[in-house]
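Objective 1.3, modelling of assemblies. Example input:
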Amino acid sequence: MKARKPWLTTIAVSVIAVFLLLPLLNTLMTSLKTTGDINSFPPKFTFAPTLEHYRNVMFAAGYDFTSYFKNSILLSVFTSLFVIVIALPSAYSVIRLGFSSGRLLTLSMALRLFPPIVFAIPYYLMFQYLGLLDTVTGLILINIFLNIPLGLILMVGFLQELPYEIEESAKIDGCNVYQILWKIILPLMAPGIASVAILAFIFSWNDYLFAVIISLNKATPVTLGSTMFITSWGIKWGDISAATVLSILPPLLFTFFAQRYLVSGLSMGAVKG
Amino acid sequence: MKGLLTRCVTLALSLTVVLAGCGSNQDSSTDAGGASGGSEQSGTSKVSMVYWPGPESDAMQKVVDAYNSGQGKTDGVNVEMVLLSRDGTYEKEAAMMSSKSDEVDMYFTASYIIGQHAPSLDALDGKLNTDGYLKSSVDSLRMNNETLAIPMDVSNHFLLYRQDLIDQLLSDSAWKSKYGEVSQKVLGQTLEPKDPKDWTWDDFIAAAAFFSQEYNPDSPTKYGTALQMKNLIFNVMIWDDFLWSSGGSWLDESGKPQLNSDAAKKAMGIYSTIYNGKMTSPNSTVAEYPETQAALQSGNAAFAVQWGAAYDELNDPARSPNIAGKIAVAPIPGEHKTHVHALGVGLNKYAKNKEAALKWMNYLTTKDAMQIYADGGGIPPIAEVLNGLGEKKPVLPLIAEHVDKYGYSTPIIAETQPIMLKLAEDLSGAWAGKDDIGKALEKAQTDVTETLSK
Amino acid sequence: MVYSEKAAKWVLSFPLLLFWVVMVVFPAGYAIYLSLHDVSMGQGMSSFSGFGNYLEILGDADFWHSIGFTLEFALITTVLELVFGFLLALLFNRSFPGKRPLLSMVLLPIMVAPSLMGIMFRLILNENNGVATYFLSLLHIQINLFDPDLVVPLMIVLDIMQWVPFTFLIIYSGLQGVDPGLFEAASVDGASYWRTVLQIILPVIAPIFFIAAFLRGIDAFRTFDVIYVLTNGGPGNVTKTASIYIYEAAFKSGQIGQAASASVIVAVFLLLLIPFFVKRLSK
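Predicted structure (tokens):
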């Protein structure tokens, strides 16, 4: 719709955006201050910016942040891929082929209800047996587990919105189920799939608890790495702020490029009729 | 769809490549201590040890490096330090211990948690010589007459105060008379200012009031002191000083809880008087170590009971420009008792490489190793090492002295940490004036009794 | 054979079923097994204790308090986040200059790991060098945001700051599918705008409201990081969530069996809600 004074909307939205972004703006500012400036009161809003904390995080702190980033990226990319590979066909099977009359769906959603902590120790034992401790593969498996319900719920919503007629006519043309899924559903669902991928990417990027339990030193992701600046003798505010800013960049870039898919994708499952 | 996926994967891959590129440069410069395939081929056994991130691990890394490039070669042992986040250290260890894992050879532990770790640790008596350490620190890692870990780092509390402000209080007659007036108001008796090393708890309260603008609008600081009242076991350790230095403790001689004692009521009373009287910031309810540092660094508070390690940062002009050089040390008021605990390392009962680990631990107990540790910023519980560094770090000899003279350890039992958790929860509400002191202590008494009976 | 629909539904569900067996059945079964035993850290498995752990947890006033607080917290935050997310989505549904960059900015908070977000809040709310406290003091507002009476509203506000963007995203996407004509009709007569929104738009996007409510409600119920970092459940136990309760039981007190049984109780409790949502989602 067209508002009469569009710039009023711009102002309103900007004010809200600034409010929501306060913690991040403050983080960004802190990451650029010297430790002395961070500790002074009243807080300084004008200061000589320094990159020392960024240098410290990446090269000097003795932590291998480059490999933490590598782990996080592998973890998030593969988690979102596998969530789709698992969720899409089974959502199709449940919705279109009537598999398990919805019980599988119920169970999978129920999964999301368990406080994840309860799985920490069983997973540790299981991965110990399978030799998956301290591996990115292990973290990927767990994050698929954490994100499958989200993927299923959204996919089911999207599928219900697709007009069944197209599939029917394809069937009449002699396409089998797999061809329909591959040639018709997949392209039609592309935006929805992309939105699931983005959300799974973000949520697996942000996991902390299982990163603690499963990784030791080789598979440490960046969320866990950042918390090493919290020490028993205080928090290195400058360093942890810099690490936080850096850790947002990959999901930010990912979302920035895929933003239009995110909104248009999620809008698929939205409306009936 | 394909376009998007391709783009995402390309993006991810290119980022990976870029980052990996940085990584390889990085590796070559810091990999000095890391284990490499080559050393394993030459028959070196690898020992992995969990440690705590922060100044402790910075210092330990120096010891590890020295060992790996020196005596470790003779021993045929290569040590790798595993760092987890501060909270994550104990979470991960809990997972490993309950699975009887051999993922690491040595666990990081501490006095307050050694009771819970005990079933997963090997006794070290007869295998290592711990005579060089301050006795209280070794004892704080012993249970049932077994030494379960060797102490690496010792922690205690001081009364840290602003020397400049106290000097003026002791000399300025206007300040002195105001002090008498304020103490009359909050305590009902007119007190003379005293040197902090001679403070009773009444002096502590009177000074806290004097330096609070609530009572003394001319006070240079907004609040007299900074209490650490967040619901945390570390804050219970600080409150314990108020309890012990008022003549109390958790358990009586027969091992029964005595949290409804008069001493406990007095210790609670000091907190609530200070908090309700606005002599500490209202935000103290979420304060712990860093917030207390900030209160002192910003010049908002005149003194605080704080961890010994704080001193260096407070007197460093780069990190504390407002107050560096003005902070002095006194013992805890009242009976001067300070909580002492040690961080240490113990041998995993299910480790694969016990022999190699013991060789490394043997090295750790030497004075040389602990000297490197102290030079790197750690606080090893060895009097000789701490005293030797007095010129560079004046606080270290004080730590050695206070730990020895005033140190006490909370009971070392399997329930140490569960009790602290209960106390943190039961008492932090009353500190903040939410719950009645008597009721909170009764609840603590019941909860601790129940915890011990399990 | 595989091409028949009967076979296909098994083939297509196979990855999920396999995943279920590997990643869910064993750990869930093991968690239940743990909950029936007397297990503590380091001791490994010891004796079978029947429902002892359950009775212990069910009799713990602290547990019930944490459930009560969590319910209150989850309910209030979810409702508020849906309302604010919806209002923000309505704003974004207009065309205005700077829409695309603002959309990216509004979504940013979702990308911060909650564990780090807690630290960031701690920095901003810090009394001695925090920006929030400083601004409040400029306005001559002298309050302790972490006072026992204010700490719950504060936690709710912080949760809203991070997660309104999420409900906004879902609801805004839903609005994209609404026939713009419906809004055109509304804007002709300004007074009827809200009536149109409530009577026509809202029913149309109701399904997506349920998705947003479900995803957000469950996550709010599992809230851990931000509260854990900021208050550790205090003062006292005022802000102790069920997740913090379970976490402390498992990792701090080392009572792994009890922690497992508390989790099972929480899960069973939430399971009762599932049929309600499934009905809405798959109608």
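The CA atoms of residues 30 and 238 of chain A lie 6 Å apart.
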